[in-house]
Amino acid sequence: MSAEPVTVIPLSEATVVAAPRCAADLTEQRGTRRVSFVPKYGSDAVAVDVRYLWCGAPHAPTVIIQGGISADRDVCAGRERRTGWWQELVGHGAAIDLAHCRVLSIDWLVPSDLGDVPSVSSEDQAAALAALVDELGIGRVHAFVGSSYGAMTGLAFAANHADKLKSLVLLAGAHRPHPLATAQRSIQRSIVRMGIESGRTDEALALARQLAMTTYRGSEEFSRRFAAGPELRDGRFHFPVEDYLEHAGRRFVERFDASRFLALSESIDLHDVSPEAISVTTTLVGFPSDRLVPLADLCELQRRLGGTATLEVVDSPYGHDAFLKETAQLAPVLRHAINDCRGDC
User: Fold this and answer.
1) Phi-psi region of 211 (alpha: psi -120 to 50; beta: other; left: phi over 0)
2) Which residues of this protein are catalytic (predicted)?
3) Which of 5, 91, 150, 197 has CB 3.0 to 4.6 Å from 146, enough for a Cys bridge?
4) Does residue 89 lie within any of the structural domains?
């Protein structure tokens, strides 16, 4: 039997594509919507263009998914992209199953998007998402699944827009940054500012990323991967871990700019949400090897949350990046956390 024809319907500045995909008829909007809200560090409402992706089974419940500061709206593969940053966990038949839900994600805002403000906050990101939920006519989302900075934004969303949210799933993110993590990010930002002032921005951004990689990953992984001794190269001893770090720095510079990094890194350290203000059902996921978000902080968050909260501990050598690497272990956790997300498709 021949497939139904593809239908393209313009909606605002978005493109809506409907086409049969496996056993489900999935739809996708990837575009821009203008929304208004008052920024935390501003006094007047601003009109903001929010770049978003909304895809999955039509008429199904919506799940918001947000990642770390380097993640974008393309959380899963789609018609115009072969990959997504969490595609192993989000897709047709995946833990977050697009046959039974729709996924909404945005590109992070930065101060220049908000006009004359000194910084962007996790509350601003949450306000943009809440306004987008209204603009798209969603009403109430089934769950907010946030990782790292996305978890911080999820907490801000739950604290300030509880009427738009049923449940919360937080991976590697807490109600406030740990002071040691803030210290490490402060050094990274200083490196980048020094690079900008000296005309060596790309070198500085790459170096800041290299330093960041030593905080994202765990000691066990580094010990296993880079245990070999140094080799003499170009007149100096070169250690195995250096090739890995330099590659990570180069890749980051290719897809990120310094001003965006400075803004979002600072936004992490400005984050501060009162757990007592959150009453929705919450699932927390932590990793013992995560040095940026220690399990002790998640235990404190669990104790202080105003609603029912469970803490899932996932063993991993990958540190903070375990939310990206441990897809097999995380799949059942996510399925259980949003197991009643079912829609007509």
Assistant:
1) alpha
2) 148, 290, 320
3) 150
4) yes
How far does CA 298 lie from the centroid of its chain? 18
52 shares a domain with 157? yes
φ, ψ for residue 43, nearest 5 deg? -115, -15
- 35-93 pLDDT per residue, tens: 999 999 999 999 999 999 999 999 999 999 999 999 999 999 988 788 999 999 999 99
Q: Are residues 165 and 279 in the same domain?
A: yes
φ/ψ region of 115 (left if φ > 0, alpha if ψ in -120 to 50, else beta) reads left
Catalytic-role residue among 74, 97, 124, 290 = 290
> What are the pLDDT digits (tens) for 99-157?
999 999 999 999 999 998 999 999 999 999 999 999 999 999 999 999 999 999 999 99
**Total domain count for the chain?**
2
Examine residue 18 and state whether it is found in any structural domain, yes or no: no
Alpha carbon distance 59, 343 (integer Å)? 7
Among residues 146, 70, 69, which one has the least CA distance to residue 104?
A: 146
The verdict on whether 289 is a catalytic residue reads no
* Residues 168/154, Cβ–Cβ less than 8 Å: yes
Q: Please say if 316 is a catalytic residue.
A: no
311: domain CATH number is 3.40.50.1820
Beta bridge partners of 146: 66, 170
Say whether both 183 and 63 belong to one domain: no
Which of 267, 286, 315 is the last residue before a domain boundary?
267
320 classed as catalytic: yes
Q: Are 104 and 132 in contact (CB under 8 A)?
A: yes
Average pLDDT score over residue span 200-218: 97
Residue from 61, 59, 60, 154 nearest 106 by CA: 154
Q: 218 lies in which domain range?
A: 179-267
Q: Is residue 11 part of a domain?
A: no
Relative to beta strand 141-147, strand 62-66 is parallel
Catalytic residue among 97, 265, 320, 321: 320
